[in-house]
Task: inverse folding
């Protein structure tokens, strides 16, 4: 008898297949017969038991091969999209993309983007997940390994911000990620942006206990109907507000309310959120809706930044509150940036590893960096010209 147990995998039986859930929100299927070829099986939540006389080593090798095939067909449970799993042995670097991995913008704030999927569909989303055909999730240990390399370059203690093109609360190893970050002496604070939809009080407390110091919660409306319209799904306003009050009352964490002001949509709600935030002792950072090339455009024109800042000034005076500074220990300062290995205009050879998230784009590799190739229908090795290299985010087009 051989029993194989896993922390990040969950198994369930479905007719002639075994459904495998990976990191909570990703899945693939294993043909039951392929397992029964190794012996009679007993499926449990986090393990599969083989009734066989074969050596455990042989069973493990065969099962790992089956798993690797399954991971190549990984899909997301929220949207059914294909998912790329990036891990230490994948050969895919974590520097070079603005969509996932790690971004160093030459400051003491490092962005960590562990996955790309989201559980709401906000009308003002700068990403617009409807346009993104694929998702990505990254192994926790690989993120920590590569993060340490960047931190070693820095002169100052660093702040980590967990965000990206999805909601980090959906990352299946979030607690472990923050716990491991907290072990790195050079890290000062760890913050995360979230819509807080799926979080519970016990989960919030656990995140606080392992070291999450700042919660940026994107509460954009207190009115229930409007909140639902903005999220384009049922948004649990009352529950999210209860979580906000819990975080604000904690002496180990800080709450930053981060509503997005969209003209003609929630401008009146912003004042309600400011009053609410002041009442519970939250920090508040009102964001202006900005148009992005591949983002959603719920209104014809965004508020010009000068006009937006004038509104913020008036709101600060009216409510005697700082809506820009947020918090001193999250102050962004210039710091050493990891060296850029390419410059704009360079022609280099890349090798594709996966289709990109947007149509006609490819994720490619060159000199241990990700290169995002646009307007591309090729696969394999070919030459591209760099059109962006700022902050080690590399974008190129075929030549």
Result:
């Amino acid at each position: 008898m051989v029993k194989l147990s896993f922390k990040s995998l969950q198994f369930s039986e479905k007719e002639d297949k075994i459904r495998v859930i990976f990191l909570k929100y990703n899945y693939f299927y294993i043909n039951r017969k392929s397992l029964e070829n190794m012996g009679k099986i007993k499926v449990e939540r986090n393990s599969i038991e083989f009734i066989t006389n074969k050596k455990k080593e042989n069973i493990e090798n065969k099962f790992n091969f089956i798993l690797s095939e399954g991971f190549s067909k990984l899909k997301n449970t929220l949207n059914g999209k294909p998912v790329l799993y990036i891990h230490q042995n994948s050969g895919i670097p974590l520097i070079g993309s603005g969509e996932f991995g790690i971004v160093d913008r030459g400051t003491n704030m490092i962005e960590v983007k562990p996955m790309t999927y989201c559980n709401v569909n906000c009308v003002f989303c700068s990403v617009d997940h409807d346009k993104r055909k694929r998702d990505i999730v990254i192994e926790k240990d690989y993120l920590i390994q590569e993060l340490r390399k960047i931190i070693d370059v820095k002169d100052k203690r660093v702040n980590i911000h967990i965000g990206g093109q999805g909601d980090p609360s959906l990352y299946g190893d979030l607690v472990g990620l923050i716990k491991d970050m907290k072990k790195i002496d050079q890290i000062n604070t760890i913050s995360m942006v979230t819509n807080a939809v799926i979080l519970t009080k016990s989960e919030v407390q656990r995140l606080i206990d392992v070291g999450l110091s700042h919660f940026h919660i994107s509460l954009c409306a207190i009115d229930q109907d409007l909140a639902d319209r903005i999220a384009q799904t049922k948004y649990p306003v009352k529950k999210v507000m209860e979580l906000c009050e819990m975080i604000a009352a904690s002496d180990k964490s800080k709450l930053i309310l981060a509503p997005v002001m969209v003209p003609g949509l929630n401008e009146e709600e912003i004042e309600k959120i400011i009053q609410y935030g002041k009442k519970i002792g939250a920090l508040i950072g009102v964001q202006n809706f900005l148009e992005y090339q591949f983002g959603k455009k719920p209104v014809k024109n965004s508020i010009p930044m000068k006009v937006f800042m004038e509104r913020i000034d008036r709101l600060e005076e009216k409510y005697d509150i700082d809506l820009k500074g947020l918090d001193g220990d999250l102050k962004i300062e210039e710091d050493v940036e990891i060296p850029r290995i390419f410059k704009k205009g360079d022609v280099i050879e890349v090798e594709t590893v996966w289709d990109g998230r947007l149509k006609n784009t490819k994720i490619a590799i060159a000199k241990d960096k990700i290169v995002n190739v646009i307007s591309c229908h090729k696969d394999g090795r070919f030459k591209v010209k760099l059109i962006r290299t700022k902050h080690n985010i590399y974008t190129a087009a075929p030549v």
Residues 2-73 form one domain. Residues 56-71 form the longest helix (16 residues). The mean pLDDT is 96.
